[in-house]
Amino acid sequence: MAYKVLFQSNPAATTDTTVYTATGAFIVHTLYICNQHSTDTALVRVAIRVAAAALSAPQYALYDVPVDPLYFGVVRGLAGGNTDLIVVRASHANVSFTGYGDA
After folding, report:
1. CATH 2.60.120 fits 4-102, yes or no
2. Would 45 disulfide with which of 15, 31, 74, 89, CB 3.0-4.6 Å?
3. How far from 49 is each of 9, 30, 80, CA to CA, in Å?
4. pLDDT per residue of the chain (103 residues) written in tens, 0 to 9
5. Where are the alpha helices (H) located in the chain, listed in sequence order?
6. What pLDDT was estimated at residue 42?
7. Alpha carbon 18 to chain centroid distance?
8. In terms of Cα–Cα distance, which of 81, 72, 78 is closest to 99?
């Protein structure tokens, strides 16, 4: 199975940003998180809002996980269903999120 880019985002600092709204079952095989800042560590969050519910503690796959300057993190195997949302956040604006998978 060939995966495709499901989303790409470079969100504003400290802003919860919806990067994917499901219209059916999906799997994010690989999520790359790239900190492009040369000196500042980024704290990142990734959540799946099941059925578009309000953000709450159980929905987070990552919560304030540090990503070093000029480095990246990888998350594997996020999945969900119809009307679920993927939400990302970073402590500064020099972080990008790219999700590859199937929907």
Report:
1. yes
2. 89
3. 17, 18, 9
4. 689 999 999 999 999 999 999 999 999 999 999 999 999 999 999 999 999 999 999 999 999 999 999 999 999 999 999 999 999 999 999 999 999 999 8
5. none
6. 98
7. 9
8. 78
Please give the Cα distance from 78 to 75 (Å, whole number): 8
Residue 85 CA to residue 89 CA, distance in Å, equals 13
Report pTM. Answer: 0.95
Question: Of 36, 29, 34, which is closest to residue 6 (Cα–Cα)?
Answer: 29
DSSP 3-state assignment of 51?
helix
Contact 22, 85 (CB under 8 A): yes
CA distances from 88 to 6, 43, 69 (A): 14, 11, 18
Alpha carbon 15 to its chain centroid, in Å, reads 12
